[in-house]
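Students often ask what a holo structure prediction actually looks like on paper. The answer is less mysterious than it sounds. You provide the chain, you provide the ligand, and the output is a string of discrete structure tokens encoding the 3D arrangement of the protein together with flavin mononucleotide.
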Amino acid sequence: MSTLKTTVLGIEFENPFLLASAPPTASVESIDKAFEMGWGGAVLKTITPDNLEMIEASPRYATIKEKGKVICFQNIELLSHETVKYWIDGIKYLKKKHPSKVIIASIMAPVEREQWQNLVKALNNTPIDAYELNFSCPHGMPERNIGMAIGTSAEISILITSWVKSVATKPVFVKLTPNVTNITWIANAVARAGADGLAAINTIQSFMGINLDTLDPVLNIDGNSTYGGLSGEAVRPIGFKCVAQLRQNSDLPILGMGGISNWEDAAQYIALGADAVQICTEVMINGYGIINGLKSGLLNYLESKGLNDISELKNIAIPKITSHEKLNKKSHLYPSIDEGKCIKCGKCVKICSESEYHALDLDNECINLNKKNCKGCSLCSHICPKEAIKMIC
Ligand SMILES: Cc1cc2nc3c(=O)[nH]c(=O)nc-3n(C[C@H](O)[C@H](O)[C@H](O)COP(=O)(O)O)c2cc1C
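The corresponding structure tokens follow.
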């Protein structure tokens, strides 16, 4: 029998699914409900010192949809609006009611030793399991020299991590931004400063576009806009890359996130090095109830693979990610067309000829392959609307 139970830094998780720091964890009532429904834990909406003003803009979301389905958010929401006292009382209440659930306090403060340490000292007296330092919010905060302004500077990241570590009585995760040239540089810096674990990714700085009728920004706040954070399915490949790079570079525990919408995405994060995962946008779109499918899907998968727990899945894909130079350039695949499925639309021929290769042509209602010209690139198989093309040896 496989199990979803796992232990990270001595913290016991009944399952590896956590709500990420975001609107689904903005109130004690919501987290209470999510715990009742089966979530393994929650990272609280980022807590700040009470004197840090949070004034929100309206609206604060824009989306891209594909066939009516939201595939990403751009948001410009700020941090928790609740006081530190609210969270201290809330954590105590939640932990008493749900002792088996993991509660992680996400925190952020101005770059002053006292402000960070006072926040940590106040929360040390609660039954939280760990801290998550938010060095990665990409909107609003960086213009106040915090959020992503911290996580894009190794020096400031080191400074704050060591301030926090010198007073924290619980393990400290650092939540990293993907808005850097190489995420491992900041990860190495905070590891040197004593971070116990890493969390990635926060949202990706973005701009949703311009409405060409009105010439106003798509995310229109009284005629103006600002850069926001992209999240949801569309960012998943960037999250995968960041988590894999972190794992290739470090043995620290990783809380992986970015675009998880089902158990398959979560399983891939784990195979790429995550110890547990966090989810935000999918929960906002489809509700806390998605936890049932996440848990049963991952458990069935572990059982089908004969794996006892997620530690046996963790890192499994990492040895398969190498440099371009080390890829086997002698391996060459060719398209094989299933004539039964092919509708002779010619899309494969067009993409092949207009993307340089000229290996396919449509002749007498038949797609012909000129093997000599075929570079085995696979574009034709991706463009085919009927999935009639497979790449084979
Ligand atoms: C509306 C919104 C608010 C967020 N607020 C926070 C926050 O307060 N602190 C934080 O660390 N991350 C925050 N995030 C980022 C998420 O925790 C998460 O890192 C990101 O959305 C990627 O995961 P996802 O694709 O599952 O949403 C927020 C994301 C969204 C969409």
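The mean pLDDT is 97.
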